């Protein structure tokens, strides 16, 4: 295993021998790491033995917070010069290789696969219950793992998951349980003004479609666009749900292929603002107003609101107007009664913009 050229002798050998040394020492590194984990696994087995219990039954005393497991982690951490937490992670990996993945461990001991791949295999299979199912998964992965070196992390994880799905009868149950927990949430109390956080859980296929779509739109602007890719992806997400197939480029060039005025949106978001707020936004927002006014008597800032109650900062209102948002004056109802029982469109719009949300105490449901 260690008959490769030493560093001092590499300068005197041919190129092919140097390449062979790279491969040989890589296998030696893998084999040495496997033996280190084997020693850790032996120590875990001695310190945290389940007393001959069934392999599918874990003695809860072995993982009490302050008993054998932590004591063993302290020993391993001291021997390796690492923290107790990292030592505990190494112990879980060593135990998994020793008890659940013997064939994968054999490849690791021979140096044919690396520590990173072994850790991924252990993590992606840690929820499998049942010795027979685990043995089948171990055999299938061991038969193919040597070819996974050039693959991306995502591809390797997908191949491991396929092996788990093929042999573990609980895989479908877990999928159904996780799918019932899917949701998308909007906003949290500490969101910055004018922005709103979005998070959730989707089907993997839907998430991939969304990621590809918004990334393609974000990269469709010209190279002179000053915004980072993350900001463009965020704007692309809004554009997709507004019915647009691109975002406006901010390069400012007259011959740009994606100017702001060319975008057409099919979804309307109502923003309520008085005339002073619109005038301030058209004049360049609060920054220009403060520059023109007296330091002792600054111009009061006017705010705009969405009909769900959210505040629209002046810079965002300025951007919406600059990008072609349609401004519709809101007409106050006259004293004359409506001609019909059902309120007119103008009256409905006025009431919704006046109240913004439901009038019931404590209810913030949007009025529109």
Short description:
50% of the residues lie in helices and 4% in strands.
Q: What fraction, in percent, of the residue positions are helical?
A: 40-55%
The SSE order reads HHHHHHHHEEHHEHHEEHH
Can you tell me the residue ranges where pLDDT is under 50 for at least 5 consecutive residues? 285-298
User: What is the residue-mean pLDDT, rounded to a whole number?
Assistant: 79
The total count of helices amounts to: 14
Beta-strand percentage range: under 5%
How would you write the strand order of the largest sheet? 3-4-5
**Biggest sheet statistics:** 3 strands, antiparallel
The radius of gyration computed from the alpha-carbon positions, rounded to a whole number of angstroms, is 32 Å
State the distance separating the first and last CA atoms. Answer: 74 Å
In terms of structural class, how would the helical and strand content be classed?
mainly alpha
Domain unit count: 3
Q: Count the beta strands.
A: 5
Shape: elongated
Task: Give structural notes.
The chain is mainly alpha-helical. The protein has three domains: 7-179, no CATH class; 198-262, no CATH class; 271-355, no CATH class. The chain has 14 helices and five strands. It has helices spanning 15-47, 68-80, 84-99, 102-109, 115-124, 131-144, 153-167, 170-180, 204-218, 229-241, 275-282, 285-292, 314-322, 345-355, and strands at 183-186, 198-201, 271-272, 304-306, 311-312. The strands form two sheets. It has a three-stranded antiparallel beta sheet. A two-stranded antiparallel sheet has the order 1-2. Strand 4 and strand 5 form a beta hairpin. Helix 1 (15-47) crosses helix 3 (84-99) and helix 4 (102-109) packs parallel to helix 6. The longest helix has 33 residues, at 15-47. The chain starts with 14 loop residues before the first helix and ends in a 13-residue tail after the last helix. The model is unreliable at 285-298 (pLDDT under 50).
């Amino acid at each position: 295993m260690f008959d490769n050229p030493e560093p001092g002798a590499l300068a005197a050998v041919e190129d092919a021998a140097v390449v062979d040394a790279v491969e040989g020492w890589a296998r030696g590194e893998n084999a040495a790491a496997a033996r280190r984990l084997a020693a850790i696994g032996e120590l875990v087995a001695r310190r945290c033995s389940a007393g001959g219990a069934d392999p599918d039954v874990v003695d809860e005393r072995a993982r009490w917070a302050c008993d054998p497991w932590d004591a063993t982690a302290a020993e391993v951490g001291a021997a390796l010069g690492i923290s107790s937490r990292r030592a505990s992670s190494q112990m879980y990996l060593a135990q998994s290789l020793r008890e659940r993945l013997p064939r994968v461990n054999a490849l690791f001991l021979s140096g044919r696969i690396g520590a990173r791949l072994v850790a991924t295999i252990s993590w992606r299979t840690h929820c499998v219950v049942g010795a027979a199912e685990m043995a089948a998964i171990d055999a299938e992965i061991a038969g193919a793992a040597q070819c996974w070196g050039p693959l991306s992390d995502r591809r390797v994880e997908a191949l491991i998951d396929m092996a788990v799905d093929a042999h573990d009868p609980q895989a479908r149950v877990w999928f159904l349980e996780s799918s019932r927990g899917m949701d998308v949430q909007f906003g949290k109390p500490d969101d910055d003004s004018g922005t709103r956080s979005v998070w959730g859980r989707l089907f993997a296929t839907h998430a991939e479609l969304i990621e590809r779509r918004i990334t393609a739109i974000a990269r469709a602007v010209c190279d002179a666009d000053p915004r980072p890719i993350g900001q463009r992806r965020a704007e692309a997400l809004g554009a997709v749900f507004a019915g647009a197939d691109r975002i406006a480029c901010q390069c400012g060039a007259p011959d740009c292929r994606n100017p702001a005025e060319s975008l057409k949106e099919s979804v309307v978001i109502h923003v309520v603002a008085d005339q002073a707020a619109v005038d301030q936004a058209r004049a360049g927002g609060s920054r220009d107003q403060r520059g023109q006014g007296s330091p002792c008597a600054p111009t009061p800032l006017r705010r705009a609101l969405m009909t769900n109650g959210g505040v629209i900062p002046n810079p965002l209102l300025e951007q919406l107007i600059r990008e072609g948002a349609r401004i519709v004056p809101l007409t106050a109802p006259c004293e004359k009664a409506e001609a019909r029982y059902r309120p007119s469109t103008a009256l409905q719009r006025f009431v919704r913009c006046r109240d913004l949300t439901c009038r019931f105490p404590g209810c913030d449901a949007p009025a529109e």
